[in-house]
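Posting for a labmate who doesn't have an account.
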Amino acid sequence: NSATTKKYLDHWSQSLAAPWIGRQVSGYLQQLGITDLSITGEVCTLTDYATSNRMYCIEQKAKELVEKGIITHDESKQWLDELQSMSKNGEFFCSLTLFMVHGVKS
């Protein structure tokens, strides 16, 4: 269910300390006088629901969505069941982009 997934992702990103840092880090570091700046990205991909749930707290975040009235209990159950079914059928995919930043302070 893409609507529930979007609500989940919106909630999850709002819980991050700096959800836009990947877009802002270059400018921040340049303002601090960092030179020889290098930023690389790595994508962590997972195709197993259980591992993804342990890493990203999918079920806990879904519970929070229900508690906040963003989705219903039935929507949460249907969505989680769908994710688990996708995992069993080899159709589950989850990813997160990580950034590595290196520079020199003059």
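Reply:
Got it, the structure tokens are right above this. Residues 62 and 76 are 6 Å apart (CA to CA).
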